[in-house]
C-alpha cells in the first residue's frame, strides 16, 4: 500500500477498491490479447493489392501489398483512414497548409487525423520491434503526402488505395462508397499473406452512453482523459484549434 500527502482515509479506501478493478481490467486485457493471438489462421488475401506510394527513392511508385513486408518482419498493421472524410462529417476543414486547398468533401476525417498524429511517433518503435505499419486512404497519393507534410508526420508509410478494392474488401468502405475507419493486421506465412484481425468492434452495437471505441485501447488521447476527474468530454477532435494545426 502507498499513500500520498494529506489524503484522507476515505480516499485511500476508495482508491484501494479501484485498484482491484484496475488489476481485474489488466487481467481481462491480457486474456483478450491471448485469445486474439490464439485465433486460427485467417483467410488468404484475394490478391496482391497494388497501391500508390513513395518508393525508396522518394518518388511515386506502384507498391504491392507483399512489398510492405520488410525482410524478417512477417506482420503488417494497416490503418485505413477516412480520407476523404465521411459525407455526413460536419466538423471544420483545414484552413491552412496544402490540405486547405482541397474541397470540403475531399478533406480528411479529423478523428482519423488526430489518431495518426499520435501514432506517427510510435511507428519507428513498431518497426524496430519487428512489425510493419502503413496508412491507407482512398484519395490521391499527392493528397496523403500533403496531409503528412501539414501534420509533420515523418515515420508512417502513406498509401493510396484509389486504384484498388482493398478498402472495400476489408470493410473500410461502405456500399455507398463512404469511407470507414478500420485497423487491420495481416500476417505472412508459408502459404501467403493472411488476414489476422480487424477492429470489428466498430461494427458491434455500443453500450448505452458509450461510443464504439473500435481501437480504444491504442488511443492515447482518449485514454489519458479517462484518468481525469472530468473523464471523456462531449467533444470531437478537430483538424486545428484556434486556427493552429496540431502536430
Describe this structure in words.
The chain is an alpha/beta fold. The protein has a domain at 50-201: Glutaredoxin (3-Layer(aba) Sandwich), CATH 3.40.30.10. Helices cover 28% and strands 18% of the residues. It contains five helices and nine strands. The strands form three sheets. A five-stranded mixed beta sheet has the order 5-4-3-6-7. A two-stranded antiparallel sheet has the order 1-2. Strand 3 (75-80), helix 2 (110-128) and strand 4 (132-137) form a beta-alpha-beta unit. The protein is globular. The mean pLDDT is 95.
Number of helices: 5
CATH topology of the domain at 50-201: Glutaredoxin
**How helical, in percent, are the residues?**
25-40%
The total strand number stands at 9
Largest sheet: 5 strands, mixed
Described by the principal axes of the CA atoms, the overall outline is globular
**Which residues form runs of ≥5 with pLDDT under 50?**
none
CATH class of the domain at 50-201: Alpha Beta
Strand order of the largest sheet: 5-4-3-6-7
List SSEs in N-to-C order. HEEEHEHEHEEHEE
Strand content: 15-25%
Pfam families: DUF899 (PF05988)
InterPro entries: DUF899_thioredox
Protein name: DUF899 domain-containing protein
Amino acid at each position: 500500500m502507498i499513500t500520498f500527502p494529506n489524503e484522507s482515509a476515505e480516499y485511500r479506501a476508495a482508491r484501494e477498491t479501484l485498484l482491484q478493478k484496475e488489476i481485474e481490467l489488466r487481467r481481462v486485457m491480457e486474456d483478450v490479447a491471448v485469445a486474439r493471438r490464439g485465433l486460427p489462421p485467417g483467410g488468404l488475401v484475394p490478391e496482391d493489392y497494388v497501391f500508390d506510394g513513395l518508393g525508396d527513392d522518394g518518388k511515386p511508385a506502384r507498391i504491392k501489398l507483399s512489398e510492405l513486408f520488410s525482410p524478417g518482419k512477417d506482420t503488417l498493421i494497416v490503418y485505413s483512414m477516412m480520407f476523404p472524410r465521411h459525407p455526413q462529417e460536419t466538423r471544420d476543414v483545414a484552413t491552412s497548409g496544402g490540405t486547405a486547398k482541397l474541397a470540403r468533401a475531399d478533406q480528411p476525417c479529423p478523428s482519423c487525423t488526430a489518431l495518426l498524429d499520435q501514432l506517427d511517433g510510435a511507428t519507428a518503435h513498431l518497426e524496430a520491434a519487428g512489425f510493419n505499419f502503413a496508412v491507407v486512404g482512398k484519395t490521391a497519393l499527392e493528397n496523403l503526402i500533403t496531409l503528412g507534410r501539414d501534420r509533420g508526420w515523418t515515420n508512417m508509410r502513406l498509401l493510396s488505395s484509389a486504384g484498388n478494392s482493398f478498402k472495400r474488401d476489408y470493410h473500410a468502405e461502405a456500399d455507398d462508397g463512404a469511407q470507414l475507419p478500420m485497423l487491420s493486421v495481416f500476417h505472412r506465412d508459408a502459404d501467403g499473406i493472411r488476414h489476422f484481425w480487424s477492429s470489428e468492434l466498430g461494427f458491434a452495437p455500443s453500450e448505452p452512453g458509450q461510443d464504439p471505441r473500435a481501437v480504444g485501447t491504442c488511443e492515447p488521447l482518449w485514454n489519458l482523459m479517462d484518468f481525469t476527474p472530468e473523464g471523456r468530454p462531449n467533444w470531437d477532435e478537430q483538424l486545428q484549434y484556434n486556427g493552429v494545426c496540431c502536430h
